[in-house]
Amino acid sequence: MNGTQLFITVLYSAVTLIGIVGMLAVLRSTRRKGEALPESTLHKLHRGENWWALMALVILIVFFVGTFAGIPWLNRAQADTTANVRALQFAFIVQPAQIPAGTVDFKVKSDDVSHGFGLYAPDGKLVKQIQVLPGVTSTMTVDLDTPGTYKILCLEFCGYNHHNMVGQFEVTQ
Amino acid sequence: MSSEATSTRGATAVVLPYDDSPMLDARTISRTESLVKRYMWTSTLFLVIAGLLGLVLRQSQAEIVRVDDNLWYALMTAHGLGAFVAWAGFFLMGAMYWILMRLGIPLRTYIFAEISYWTMVLGTLGIVWTTLISGFGASWVALYPLPFHSAGQWSDTATGLFSFAVLLAGVSIITWSIALLIAVTGPAIQSSRKGVFYKLFLALGFAHLWPSKFKHSGERKTPYPVIPITVIAINMLTMTLPFALLLVFMIVESIDGSFTTDPQLAKNLLWAFGHPVVYLLLFPCVAALYYFIPRFARRTMISGRIVVVVWFIALTTNSFLWAHHMYMDYPDSGPQQILNLVHEPVTFAIVLASAVSIYALSATMYRSDFQWTAASKFLVAGMIGWLTAGFQGVINADIQLNEMIHNTLWVVGHFHHMALLGLGMILMGVFYAVLPMISHRPLYSEKLANIHLWGMLIGGYGWVVCWLIPGLEGAPRRFAILPEQWDIWTQLSIPFMVIMTLGILVGLYNYVRTAMNSPWTADQQPQIS
Ligand SMILES: [Cu+2]
Ligand SMILES: [Cu+2]
């Protein structure tokens, strides 16, 4: 698991746990049958709505500001090498097929329809991805420090043979 | 006439524990009920078809009986549109007529509802035909120019006909929106002033927010469920148009191949509709919860002004957030990068409507004398699904996290979690609540409803997790044959899927028995009065 995947797993598990515990507490509270809520509690529940909305707003703003550090087109490292990728129904052609370890710019173009350039490490896990529309060039910058055979899977549905659209290249020392 | 309506409801002992519905004349009630019945049963039939296709797809991935590659993608295309639009969307469209009627805001003309019904039926049949028979398999998004690059699998004519069928479904959504907007801007909203826009603001709840400026002529302020209904009607009326335009372009190209469209523009037009249409499910579900939860909790909804504000935010942002489906499209030149960046905070803003709604509904339930029935159990289970899938939505709204999850099985897990275990369960709760009332018969079996509930909870969550976990490792979506390393998850999902399917089948049996021997004869049964 890389950092992003770990982040999602931990964050999602924690928040879901809190959410479910909260909901179960609300459900449990309905077991005291028949007793009317005092005016003061009703009042608190009403006011709580504004605080709740404010809290949600603040969390969302924090989350949004946090993403700036990871927006790919705003955080590009200086590349050591450039590789050209041609995507077509149903293949990827990478040139050169051997790339020295370091920071790489992948310049991806499509011959026909939309494709997704999904880069998988030698251990089979997704490293990074970018989409490419026909008629434009999409550049993905990525650090490839581990030598080995990298695989490319298509991450945009592109026809009946989409799942066989595979490419590969070597990263050398 | 009000006494007649009361006796109709009373005779069958199908009443909500708390109900302040204004009484309407018997003719309006029976007319709406027969319309709603038609929507609900037809969409349920589409669930059976779409669900069956889903089973075939997943078992093929698990290599039980492998389906031919293009057929697999054609089935996927039909399954997506069928489950999302023809079942869930269509069902909820009908349910909204019923809720508005119960709130004393019935349809003022049935013509748009009829057009909406028939265009959806024809559109769905057209989709089934062009995918299963003509082999159109470009997925429901039909990402341009793929429909015209079939690699020999289907013809341009099939693309044209498919586009036309989807366009019919679009006409259905638009006419439905018109029917609702005519209803909520009518005399039933009790406006103190003339003018459609003033009435529209009243329907959006502005008398709660700004009572000195927005006044009703009567005592009653706009009931809360009307607010999300009005929001989605306005959104669907406007945001279906960009996609309709793209479909027209594709129909023209299927006839005259020299006519082409820019792929990047096409993708933006698609998602300008493709995201808002998600709320064709969510907002009506929220309206249903606003309607039913207070009634099962036997108190009015605990909510104030802020709910009006967040729904107004939802109304405006829903038209400008589609580019979150294009976060990984950032070509070196052109404005797409900026658009993607701008649409991120807008996407976050729409979360507020869900956050505040969950609070209001929970507060309404808190320490209430809540009545637990088949309907209310499903509504609450659906709320939990909505909440837990909603957190995934916030993750998906984030640009940097998309580098790992975009177009992976995580997304497939997310929308099945949201659409079936969240909104789908709310929808099924609505069916449990409404069906006895419109059939004038009590629910056939609470026990079977419990089996239905637990089948979906145990089977459904297990089934969804088998997508979420491999998705986080980068397992790709829309693969007829998945890379071997994730086979274990595909196989593990099958028993869960079987449990869930059995649960749903029990539920369907329960619905049909409630409506008596055949749902199609329910209309002809003598009314109890
Ligand atoms: Cu491809
Ligand atoms: Cu979206």
Could you tell me the number of beta strands of chain B? 0
Query: Might you state the CATH topology name of the domain at 13-371 in chain B?
Result: Cytochrome C Oxidase, Chain A
Q: Can you give the helix content of chain A as a percent range?
A: 25-40%
How much of the polypeptide of chain A forms β-strand, as a percent range?
A: 25-35%
Give a count of the beta strands of chain A, DSSP E runs of length 2 or more.
Answer: 9
Walk me through this protein's architecture:
The complex is a heterodimer of chains A (173) and B (529). Chain A has 173 residues and is α+β, with helices and mostly antiparallel strands. Helices cover 32% and strands 34% of the residues of chain A. Chain A has two domains: 3-74; 81-172, Cupredoxins -  blue copper proteins (Immunoglobulin-like, Sandwich), CATH 2.60.40. Chain A has helices spanning 3-29, 39-67; strands spanning 81-88, 91-95, 98-100, 102-110, 115-120, 126-132, 138-144, 148-154, 166-172. A five-stranded mixed β-sheet of chain A has the order 3-9-8-5-6, with no helix packed on it. By secondary structure, chain B is mainly α. In chain B, α3 runs parallel beside α5, α3 (69-102) packs across α10 and α10 packs across α15 (409-439). Chain B has a domain at 13-371: Cytochrome c oxidase-like, subunit I domain (Cytochrome C Oxidase, Chain A), CATH 1.20.210.10. The termini of chain B are close together. Bound molecules: copper (II) ion (2 copies). Residues 115, 154, 156, 158, 162, 165 of chain A line the site of one copper (II) ion. One copper (II) ion binds next to loops of chain B.
